[in-house]
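Why predict the complex rather than its parts? Because the way molecules touch one another can change local conformation, and only a joint prediction can capture that. The input here totals 442 residues.
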Amino acid sequence: MQIALLGGTGDIGQGLALRWARDTNHDIIIGSREAEKAETKADEYETELASRDEDVDIAGLANPEAAAEADVIVLSVPAYYLSDTIDDVADEIGDAVLVSPAVGMQRDESGVHYNPPGVGSVTALAAKAAPDEVPIVGAFHNLAAGKLANLDADLDWDVPIVSDDADAKDTVTALAEGIDGIRALDAGDLANASEVESMTPLLINLAANNEGMHDLGVKFH
Amino acid sequence: MQIALLGGTGDIGQGLALRWARDTNHDIIIGSREAEKAETKADEYETELASRDEDVDIAGLANPEAAAEADVIVLSVPAYYLSDTIDDVADEIGDAVLVSPAVGMQRDESGVHYNPPGVGSVTALAAKAAPDEVPIVGAFHNLAAGKLANLDADLDWDVPIVSDDADAKDTVTALAEGIDGIRALDAGDLANASEVESMTPLLINLAANNEGMHDLGVKFH
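Output of the joint prediction:
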């Protein structure tokens, strides 16, 4: 499967790219607003993986070209770039599944707070910005980017997944579970995205307030 | 320490009462709007514990009398009774710490959704309803009542705790960790309560959508 990580040059996109490249046989395409930046990062990821005896090719393309190649497009961009990023690639999405991992947050003196857009969640915003026929899946909201990108770190995290499209949910569930140490869980419809997204500021607040805790994820049982 | 569980006749109050009675030396007082109902439930809990060779006395009193005795008062009532319950006991709180575990939720065809009151969280509503000088702690929002009340079930759950009062937070942290299998975590100020509360509908949605999962709690790492 071809996975395009738009905004895959940093944050959660980097970790997903490295882990999918290492743990699965999917083809990884890094997307960025600038093709050159995408290529540079793709090379860096290849070098990082080669240093671990993982010989993989990772492509680097401008976002629209990356989207055009992909079966699954992960919008690994900050929430405030989400609509613009979707607009930039809308004509290239085709039959691909669109995955939204972004969370809207706001910081004050107490900590970090969930700050959803008016439509209720960032995942819902992605659905609103995308062409009507594109299946939207909310996933990977609660992964700590630093630990995810550190291939020395073993994961043991759950990934709640929301979507109104059962096939797309299955596709992303399989993708998520392709990463070692990730268990995907069905959190229901897209309307349930806000409860998933709002766990991210909680994870950040817990890491900030408890000694020895950082890069937190979650496990449900 | 004297712990009063207002609304301790059902749901999460039952589980906290049984586990504190079994796992700690604290004195447990069940509060209810009707003293007789509180007494009946207290007797039931004693019988349940006696069947496990735990010989403890549990008191049952009307809410105001229960509150008057207590060092810590747990408002284990539904969110929509919270303000009324606090009003009923306001004159009896004295130096006690008030603990709010309730979560406002609403169900639709997709699942259960977080539905906070206008002040931002149920914990903040407790702070608003209580006399100014009373320390408020948000805790125990994310515990599955059924499993908590089943003393055959071993727990392995985290309890995020929020408060603006450091001493009260320490008191409730120690209380929480007195229960076998519970780890208390500092989630920061009371302003961070909504992110803690909104995890409860997520737990319910995950249990509803994943086969073999029920009575879910959470562990952060």
